[in-house]
Amino acid sequence: MKNIVVLILCAVVTSYLTVQIATKSALTRTTDHETAYERIIRTGVVRCGYFLFPPLAMKDPNTNALTGVTIDIFNKLAKHLNLKVDWAEEVSFAGLVPGLQTGRYDAICTPMWPTAARAREVEFIAPQFFAALGVWVRVDDDRFTNNLSALNKEDVTISGIDGQIEQTVHDDQFPKAKMLSLPGGTDFSESMLNVVTKKADATFVDRAAGDLFAKTHPGKLKNIASQPLRVFPFSVAVMGGETRLKNMFDTAMNELHNTGYIKRKLDEYDPGNHFLPVNDFYKGTNQNVAK
To answer: How far is residue 130's CA from residue 274's CA, in Å, rounded to a whole number?
Structure first.
């Protein structure tokens, strides 16, 4: 009888110890994985990946100092959160999300266009501002002027980049047209060059990108959209699942809107009104209609 009691007690103790060890192991695995939010709060530093795109982000070739609308905005956002910014890595557009996914930085701090495809991989914080999407064709091509529906024909070719807004607009509004697709990460200027060289008839880019292209290719393309095809936000991205980090950045970004800081920065860097402040957008103003 005593042997049976001893065996039962041994079994109970063994089961208890097994549960404790398993629980401790699970807790250790959980705490071993530090989120980006937790690391930022612990170190007081946000590591930023970024790409260069005037006037959003520019680099002085002599000093490597970064300036621009979004550089100033994110530095100010971090200051409101009592954080420092480490502009850790300049990345090609194609490499932005992979760099975030592999933990080389905590956020893509030069803002991107939120799209459904990108939302599967990253989370977007509250927008910094908005931009208007135009329709760019050759200056001597009047087939589509005041008649954008003429783009939706089988003998029309639209140039765009895989996974970008051009493809979305094509699929939604001009599905009958052919799509000349460039690999994801290709510079937007290549899509515009396809129109210049008559490989395509039209492409869709925002006014800032179109005017930047015009500086090096004057008199080649024109924007025929009297009203924008889309008005879309520019937003910083963090890794999918980083909800606490997103919420913290959202709150700080909204503070910058409420203080008028972002509007002042747009006035400073973007006198041509390529970008539309969030507060003006919600008032229904039309100052950034593509011309």
So the answer is: 9
Residue 127 DSSP one-character state: -
- How many separate domains does the chain show? 2
How far apart are the C-alpha atoms of 273 and 266, rounded to whole Å? Answer: 8
Q: Are 181 and 140 in contact (CB under 8 A)?
A: no
Distance CA 131, CA 137 (A): 19
For residue range 126-182, what is the model confidence (pLDDT) as tens digits?
999 999 999 999 999 999 999 999 999 999 999 998 878 888 899 999 999 999 999
SS3 content of the chain, % helix, strand, coil (to 5): 45, 25, 35
Q: Which domain holds residue 82?
A: 36-130+233-283
Other beta carbons within 10 angstroms of residue 135's beta carbon come to 24
CA dist 231 and 289 (Å) reads 9
Domain of 241, CATH number, reads 3.40.190.10
Reference 228, options 181, 159, 275, 282; nearest CA is 275
Report the predicted TM-score, pTM, of the whole model to 2 decimal places: 0.79
